[in-house]
Known about the structure:
Largest sheet: 4 strands, antiparallel
Strand order of the largest sheet: 1-8-3-6
Structural class: mainly alpha
Number of strands: 8
Radius of gyration: 34 Å
GO molecular function: potassium:proton antiporter activity; sodium:proton antiporter activity
Keywords: Cell membrane, Ion transport, Membrane, Sodium, Sodium transport, Transmembrane, Transmembrane helix, Transport
InterPro entries: Cation/H_exchanger_CPA1 (IPR018422), Cation/H_exchanger_TM (IPR006153), cNMP-bd_dom (IPR000595), cNMP-bd_dom_sf (IPR018490), RmlC-like_jellyroll (IPR014710)
Organism: Histidinibacterium aquaticum
Mean pLDDT: 76
Helix content: over 70%
Membrane topology: Multi-pass membrane protein
Distance between the termini: 109 Å
Strand content: under 5%
Low-confidence stretches: 828-836
Amino acid sequence: MSVVVITAIIASLFLVVGLAEPLAARLRLPYSVILAMIGIVIGAGASFLLQTELTDAFNSVSAAILNLPIRSNVFLYVFLPTLLFQVTLGMNVRRAMDDWVPIIVLAVVAVIFSTFVVGSALSLVSSFSIYACLLVAAIVSTTDPSAVVGIFRSIAAPRRLTRIIEGESLMNDAAAIALFGVLMGFVMEGLPNPDPIEAIARFPVLLAGGAAIGWLFGRIAVWVMSKFSRHELAQLSISVALPYLAYVIAANGAGVSGVIAVVAAGLTINVTAPSALGPTAWTNMREVWDLLAHWAGALIFVLAALLIPRLLEDVTFVDIGLITVVVIAALLARAVVLYGMLPLLSAAKLSPKIDTPYKTAILWGGLRGAVTLALALAVTESFRVPPDVRRMVGIVATGYTLFTLVVQGGTLRWVISRLGLDKLSPIDRALSNQVIAVALQSVREDVQRATEDYDLSRELVRSEAKTFGERLEAAVREAEDSSDILDRDRVTLGLIALAGAERDIALERFRERAVSSRLADRIISDADALIEATRTDGRTGYRRASRRVVELTRVFRFAVFLYNRLGISMPLARQTADRFELLVFQRLIIRDLDRFIDTRIRRIHGRRVAEILHELLGRRAELVDQALDGLKLQYPGYAEELERRFIRRTAIRLEYEEYSTLHEEGLIGDELYVDLVHTLDARFAQQDRRPKLDIALQKADLARQFPLFSELDEASLQRLKKALVTRYAEPGEIIVSRDAPAETVFFISSGAVELRRAGQTYRLGRGDLFGQLALLSKSTLRTEVQAIAPTTLLALDDKRFRRLLTRSPAIMEAVRKSAEERGIALDSLYVVSRGE
């Protein structure tokens, strides 16, 4: 085949890809279904033209199409890594980790279950071995959810549901391909059959080995790309090479799962690259990969569909019967997972509740596509597989794929329509009328100002204003006549809009480099969590999610454990600095959201709803301020340093914008502009480094941390250090309860606490002490002390503390002063001071 013909065919394929998307939109069919149909028509047409005696004019073109070097390796080594890698880059890893249980169940557990059910059913009605039937079942277990996900996005289905389906597809392909590799060993002739126990034991090794190689390659790639910060094209080139190198080395070099290696490499890049590369490079990288994946996904569908006529050319009625059995068994297995396993997970609070209509759409939308055809093709190409098994696998897998694409894919939108998933809820319909009325009122004001600015003809303006006014009156009338929306529903809708605005603000600040890249993902994930919780549980869900934003993460708690128990401070310093920056940024965002309520939400939902939203936002601000105050008490001055850094970064960004405007207006030349930008880049690099937070505190340096101990001699200090007992408290933990007997004095070596007594609240931080007044007072003070930050305390018992008072006038004076400030009589203090 000449280079000219191959070039013409490739160009024609890209033309087909370009025309398929608008065609799919016009016919209201899934894009993947249209691509598959086009491929089938091209393949069948080429075969017909080559065999017909009507004309020989198209024989050369038909032969070139049918003789394209399409092999399974082309799909597995060229297209598959691209598709998998792009999906991982586009995932919200933090939010996906929240739903790892349903994703694993739908992907790994469901693949194994479906393989067993379909394989067993096929074995009962055919003469093939159980291993051959299980191989077919593994091949048809890979799902392509692009159709149902695309429709879910168009009908505004819950984001969490869409994310679970996407995550399932990613892990589904990996698990099915790994299982396929294990089962191939049982059907290949000329090789000793593997031991089933060893094969099952090897399955986790394939997954773990692939994950390790992918993580290692991902880390190396990020490190190399970070060294080329001014060479974005080099960074993009390295990212393109990464999935292919990981796949080839894992599959061919280490003998583990190449698919898992690609997924692990992509997830590693997703988590680590944003902070290492910066927002612009990261955004451009994702855009490049979106384009590559679009081409790869379209081409793999078309090329795979070209094979369908060839693979089904000698199909018989017996084969159709086997295909029917596979169709029924696969749907049954999928239904058991959706209607049986998922409700159990929902009852155990491990998965979101999925309504029955959505389950039905997921069941019918489980299309099979190019990966299934590629695996089937790999079997038909292997001469070690018996001919009858090759034929059966090719026909059954291809026939089943054709059924899902044509029957399920062709009717999927109709099914979704019948389920009522494409219709607005009554609340959204009522709200849409009001939104239109408010929007038209704003448009009328803007148009009026525009016509005045341009001094247009009064007659023309009057004529158009009359037409527009009639439309506005109709919209207002329809909004007033529509069913009323309850305040509860308005609050829910307002909170969803508020969380959406928070997400937009975070994205904008990320693009402006006002927030660290490594934290932007968490901030955006928190906003997504607010949206989902509000959609599910309304105001209660918003409150719960907003509290979770402020709470300590599992990673932070683990870092506290490492520091408190093992003395390892670096992870805690990093997590504490992150928490400082997040809380400072949250406080800034909340102020922006207050303005958003007044300028946008009030106009749609009214004053009462706006007041409720302000109240909810105010409570959230209190949570943020409380957490931030705790950190400020623990590490004074650090929040101010972060705020100074934010102001400097904002100033540099504004300077960037000013130079860009001057350059676009032609007021400064290219050379001067480049020089100015380079200078700003250097300044921004300096401000990009976060202030260092030193959290290390050694017990041996106690005297330096507490000025109260400064008067003690060295011998007393050594005895004191031996007597002190370390205690650790997490935020929210009650350290001293109201009814507890006074037996201990606590010194705060790091952290912050809140002391509540007689309706008054005091906050204490690093270097303060508490419990001394309860010990020395004649009456019971009924004081409660609660940690408001990760707190390290040094505890001293009653006897040793009283002895310490006699040796340190400074401590005695400090105790006396704190008692006077709170109006507490400490007669026993004088007794102690006289040594009685």
